[in-house]
Structure formats: structure tokens, C-alpha cells
Amino acid sequence: MSSREELNPAALRSALVGTRFPARLHHFPTTESTNTLLLDAAANGAPEGTVYLADAQTQGRGRGGHTWHSSPGDGLYLSVLAMPRLPLREALWISLATGLAVQSAIKTVTGLDVDIRWPNDLLLPQPDGPGKKIGGILVEAAVHPGEDALLRYAVIGIGININHESFPPELAPIATSLRIATGEPQSRNALMIAILRALDLELTQLEAHQPDLLDRFSAASSWVQGKRVQVPEQGGYTGTTAGLDRNGYLLVDTDDHTQRTVLSGGVREEA
Questions:
Q1: Under a CB-based contact definition with an 8 Å cutoff, are residues 187 and 168 in contact?
Q2: Sign of CA dihedral 39, 44, 49, 51
Q3: Record: fold of 9-219
Q4: Domain ranges of the chain
Q5: What is the model's pLDDT at position 217?
Q6: In contact, 136 and 174? CB cutoff 8 Å
Q7: CA proximity to 214, closest of 242, 249, 178
Q8: Which pLDDT score, from 0 to 100, does residue 64 have?
Q9: β-strand partners of 78
């Protein structure tokens, strides 16, 4: 298989029949950011299940404004428009559910066991140090006005390093790809299908208010319980992770003997 495998929108649509996605999949050779493009479309009435897929992004974004390295044809860069009826306080559940979907898809396609760094990073464990990032998720939402605000829609951005053979020097120590990890090229089409089928199932469970999401995420991530971490927010602190609260936010038992709730991500393993 060539590492420059072309995406096949017609085959993708056929494989996604039975999900909310096949009639609304749009492919772009290059775009600034699939999330930015889809956010604009959502504000102008795009239907649920719309998917924007790009071979490359020139201004890809991650959580906290971080940029995303996007070499043409090597990765998977997509955004999905979802409209689960969730209160704003549970918006984080979308990111957690997406992480589970991507983790499951990577396992199905490649056999790799990836870890989820709360709330939105996919890491490949390394035998001689911290895990390296293999993918990330960025969820951006709009809400209906009102005291008990419900989500109006959420744009779910997913970026996966698939067939990158190398990374820029500043990223090489912290990033890897499915090709590097397995030693062989991987199918972008197969992974795209697996991710969207798994995500469709997760969104259906969210809409049905399935109660086990937080338990499943806790079981799937080594970062939720007992991990020594450093957290940059609230002036910065260190501690040990102590589970999730009822809305999916990470709890940390700090070294100054208090328990804090992490609200904005950025959690890293203590050096």
C-alpha cells in the first residue's frame, strides 16, 4: 500500500450507509481548517452529520490554540457536525465519547492499544519514556440561549497521524504516527470508516443518555486515576489524578493536600 493512498469519497459513503454521515461527506484536497470551515457552515444551517474531510490543513488547530502538523496525504483531518441534546455542563462528554471512538477504531484497524490523555489526546505508550501523541480532538460548540442552556451543535475535529515517516525536529520527541508504530503504511480510508462508524454509535448512546460513558472513559485512560501530573491552570500545580467528576472533568489530589478540578486541559505527566 502506498503511503500516499488517496481518499475515496464514494467508497467512504458506501461503507457508512446506516450511519448519519454518508449523504453529507465533503472532501477537500486542502483547507485552512476543517473545524473553522464547518463552524461557519453550522452557523448557516448545515445539517447534523455533515463531515468535512481534508488531505491537508494549512491552519489546523488543536485545543488551547495549538497548531497541528498536517503533511499532505499522510494524516486524517476531519470535522463532524453533531447535535446531541445535552446541557452545556455536559459538553465535555462529546470529547470523551469521541476519544473512545477513535481509540476503538485505531485498535480495530491497526491492533495498536493507544491511551487517552484526558480529555482529548491520543497517545502511543513508549517503553522508555512518556507516550507520544498520535492524534487529537477539538470540540467547539454553540449553545441555545437560556438559563439551562442546551447545546445547539458541536463541531468535532479529529486529527490522526497515519503515514508520517518523520516529524519536524521540534515535534519528533513528542509525536509519532501509525506507520512509525506498526512499521508499515496504514489505510486512511479504513481508519476513516472505522472512526465514523464508532463515533456514530457513541453519539447515539449520548443521545440516549447512556450512563456508563464516564466509567468507560476511566477504564480506557491511564490518566484518570493514580497518574502523577502537572497542571498549568490556577497558577500551576502538581498532584495525583483522582477520577472524574459527574460532568467528566478531571479531579487531582494536589501536593498541597487539596482536591482541584481541571477545567481546561493541558494536563501533562510530571517530569
A1: no
A2: negative
A3: BirA Bifunctional Protein; domain 2 (3.30.930)
A4: 9-219, 224-269
A5: 98
A6: no
A7: 249
A8: 46
A9: 53, 158
**Contact by Cβ (8 Å): 39, 155:** yes
Would you state the pLDDT for residue 130?
Answer: 86
User: Which residue type occupies 236?
Assistant: G
Q: What is the pLDDT of residue 4?
A: 67
Cell 443521545 sits on residue: 207
Amino acid identity of residue 225, one-letter, is: Q
Domains 9-219 and 224-269 share a fold: no
CATH architecture of 224-269: Roll (2.30)
- Name the stretches of the chain with pLDDT < 50: 1-2, 63-67, 69
Which of 125, 126, 122 minimizes the C-alpha distance to 104? Answer: 122
Give the pLDDT of residue 60. 56
